[in-house]
Each structure stands twice: as structure tokens, then as C-alpha cells.
Design a protein that fits this description.
By secondary structure, this protein is mostly helical. It has one domain. It contains four helices and no strands. Helix 1 (2-24) runs antiparallel to helix 4. The protein is elongated, with a radius of gyration of 13 Å. Keywords: Membrane, Transmembrane, Transmembrane helix. The chain crosses the membrane at residues 53-70.
């Protein structure tokens, strides 16, 4: 379970950072995979219109939280 949580946390962290880079400037490296949230999900959610950078950063923070939680659960 720890490795699955770490994997999800890492993917969310990378997707959040990549989406932020893509929103501020074009991000060509694995953009179709890493920017699915930024290019497909966030534009369809009306509440997030104009707040895409904050949404991407929130995804990155969620990834960090999952990584920390997985690390703490393994040491306990």
C-alpha cells in the first residue's frame, strides 16, 4: 500500500508541476501525458476558469502530502 500511495503522490506532484509549467509556458516533454488535467479536465470545470495555475499547484501540493503520508506510515 505504501508504494501505491507513493506512486500516486509522485504522479500527482509531477502532473501539478508540469501543468503549471504548461500554463505559464509551453511544456513539450510528455505534455500529452503529464498535462491531462491541465488540458482536458480544468478547462471543463467552470469554477476553475482563471485559476488554472492555482489548481495545478494544488495538485502538486496534494502529491507532496501523499508522499509525506506514505513515508510517515512506513516509519510508524
Amino acid at each position: 500500500m505504501r508504494s501505491a500511495t507513493q506512486l500516486v503522490g509522485f504522479v500527482l506532484l509531477v502532473m501539478g508541476v508540469s501543468g503549471t509549467i504548461d500554463r505559464l509556458a509551453y511544456q513539450p516533454i510528455m505534455g500529452s501525458v503529464l498535462n491531462v488535467l491541465n488540458r482536458q479536465v480544468f478547462p471543463r470545470v467552470d469554477v476553475l476558469q482563471g485559476y488554472e495555475v492555482f489548481a495545478n499547484l494544488s495538485v502538486a501540493v496534494l502529491g507532496v502530502v501523499l508522499l509525506v503520508a506514505a513515508e510517515r506510515s512506513s516509519s510508524a
